[in-house]
Amino acid sequence: MITSNDNDSSIIARIYSNLVEVIIPLQQELPLEFSANEWSFMRTDSITLLNANITSQTVIEKKKLLNNISIYVRWPPSHGIDLKEAKLVDEERRLVKIRPENKTEFIYYILPENEPIMYVNEYPSGSRFYVDFTYKNMQADQPVYVSYLSTNLKWKVNYQLMLENEDANLSLLIAMADIRNDAPSAMSLEQVELFAGDINIKVPSSSLMSHHRFMAMESVMATSNYNMFDSENENFVFEYAELNGVYAYKIDKPFYIGGMTNYILSMFHDRVNIEQYVKISISSYGVSALEGKGKRSYRLKSSNRFLPQGTCIVRHSKRIIGETQLSNIAVNQWYEFTLGDDPDIAYQQYSTLLSTTLDKDKVESMKSQRRSVYAIEIRLSNFKKSSVDVKYSYNVNGYTLIRLLPSQSSSLNVNESQSLFQQKDSDIKANIKIAANELQTFSYEIEVVRNE
User: Fold this and answer.
1) What is the pLDDT of residues 105-149, one digit of tens each?
2) How many beta carbons lie within 10 A of that of residue 146, not counting itself?
3) pTM, whole model, 2 decimals?
4) Dihedral angle sign, alpha carbons of residues 325, 331, 336, 338
5) Which of 52, 133, 241, 324 lies at a CB distance of 3.0 to 4.6 Å from 337, suitable for a disulfide?
6) Which of the residue ranges 79-93, 176-190, 224-238 would you say has the lowest mean pLDDT?
7) How do the domains of the chain map onto residue ranges?
8) Which fold has domain 274-294+341-451?
9) What is the pLDDT of residues 301-331, one digit of tens each?
10) Facing residues of 25 across strands?
């Protein structure tokens, strides 16, 4: 019988973010037998044999009758308010026997249909599931394996990003593999691979009562021996490989994971490139006056490995300054994220209509085009005691941006204005450095078109 608490060191686990593929050598006589608890975690349509040509497969549920189990009943029957311990003689007929106080003989009666069965101990697991195959070995010298998907094991990555100082180009990124066993039983895993990337595998919905799983977990939590989970300070090595856009991390040694346990292993400590700046990204419907705060922003790049998606705690000078969710990041790919407003960097942006014309010669579907030129003025305030780098962008919704024009009223000359503000598709962008405790004002002009 295959059970999740078998201490069989030949279990192969391929763990994904939401489930695991369990692979076990077929070393027993068919049919395979699973408990109700194991079945509740399994994706039952995934059970198969590897290295075998399957000709037929059957799945059968057999319920074990819970006769002579101890239950609580209301006494007197139906209208009593006291609970008394009794025996469930026949589950199908709901026949109960009880010996009243000061009586020597048992009383037998039928438990009403509207009265729930209250078990003295935890909810019993009565059903067993049997899976049978007819098959032929594909190769006589190759063993046959049982494979199925289960939701009891899953994994994720937890990151810590250490920002050492404001001027550092390299920061420390720590990655931990967090492997979770949701089942009440322990597993001893001989070979383990963790998979990351854009992998779409569906999670089954359990057909069993959630109460049953909860009671099983509650029982394990109350009786587990936590000394069993000691890893003896072993150092694990993660070997990773790219498989057609999916990344597999192979753990170099077997390990044991207890029921209802998170097993957390160190994956790597890497130096990564970090750019720190304040982001001002303005998007408005139409050209209007706007104000707000800049965003504390960062760009991260890993130069030597793929980074799986995961939650990242960001620290500066060993203090937590925010949290973000990293997506899957390829080698040498820049990844941008923000941690919230920077109250010391403020902006005000104003617009002035300089000219507008209605182009009546361009009539499409009874619509005319209005061409307008606006002067944009942006005021940036830095209340810090140090200079900051600002990345500015502006997008006008509802209009088509035709071109960027140098401002006639700008304090910058035409060449300076054209080099500072750049048009990229439908956005105006600029990289600006603001000195400590300084207010700077910039301006430029844009030509836009809107259908009327």
Assistant:
1) 898 989 888 788 887 876 566 688 999 999 999 988 899 999 999
2) 21
3) 0.78
4) positive
5) 324
6) 224-238
7) 71-124, 274-294+341-451
8) Immunoglobulin-like (2.60.40)
9) 988 899 999 999 999 988 999 999 999 999 9
10) 145
